Amino acid sequence: MTASTTSPHDDRPAPAFFAYNGSTWKEVAHLLVNLPIGIVGFVYAVTSLALGVGLTVTIVGLPLLAVALLGARLLGRFERARARKLLGVRVDEPSRMPGFGGHGFLGRLWSSLKDPVGWRTMLYAFIRLPWAVLTFGVTLVGLVVLWPVLPFIARGLTNVDRAMVRGLLCPSGELERRIAELESDRGVVVDTAAADLRRIERDLHDGAQARLVALAMGLGLAKEKLLEDPDAAAAMVDEAHGEVKLALQELRDLARGIHPAVLTDRGLNAALSSLAARCTVPVKVTADLPTRPAAAIEGIAYFTVSELLQNISKHSGARTASVEVWRAENRLLIQVWDDGRGGASLDGGTGMAGLADRLGAVDGLFVIDSPVGGPTTITAELPWRERTGDTAAPRSSLRR
What we know:
Layout: H1 22-54, H2 61-87, H3 104-113, H4 116-144, H5 150-169, H6 174-225, H7 230-258, H8 261-266, H9 268-278, E1 283-288, H10 295-316, E2 321-328, E3 331-338, H11 352-361, E4 365-369, E5 376-383, E6 396-399
Parallel strand pairs: 1-2
Antiparallel strand pairs: 1-6, 2-3, 3-5, 4-5
């Protein structure tokens, strides 16, 4: 009697039969090593959790617990590898710890303590020990007394092991992880929006509002002098006219900082060319976008390039720069290059960390390649979302 074959994509073992084949010996080996590994896992889980929880009254308790959960991940990786090798169970590896749901030590600590993969592995280590004792005893007796039917016994016992691996060590906890990341991203978006509102309020108060107050006072004085000193009144009105022009320019700049009209009317190609024209460094813009993305994605792309070009003007010492924008499948890619002095980084104090946070909040990426001495290449990636009522956006290549 021979064993039936399985599909290469099916990790269910072939049916057991009365002969000892390679699969049977692997299952027997798995059951026998369950005990020593189960003891190690149980001791690790009990000791680390006891120490971590017991020391929470001190400053080392929670960090120790976070380290214990990280160690549990390593234990889970070993158990998944053992299940693949001996039981043929193909379980995907969970993703690495995310970029930590918060800033600073406390944010990283809280993210580690909420890691669902580590907690599932701890639970696995707890319940494995009694099962390991049982399977070790049954398998050992079976080798001596029940060896004719041991393949069926081993199959039944290892099927329970397979179910435990799939239930507790598979990356099903990623949903909880994704929820935690979205909560963190929502906090970034809220903080960013609040900062933008404070900036707009400050610009209005210190700029256009102050200028309009001065304008009102000047016109009031001109009105008083209109009869007794027409020449002085005319000079004051002329000065007020200049103030009106400056106030209008400040309001236009403020409106452009909120959402530029050229972006709304003509799309990202024209808006980026307008940014390049205002940069103090010659900038070549190449945009290959047959259609326009959603307004929110278009806005994020615009302000990302705007801030990067401002950094080039202020900090890079570059002679030339370039901006390339294109679509690759369901992603919008932006690459900004300059031949300046380089050395840009997320912690360099030039707003790079804020840009990375903003892009991360919408499932984007932000990568810096800036060796000391240059050149600097910054790549940003955003999800592509279609705009309702898409219009064509022809390829443009303009130089300031």
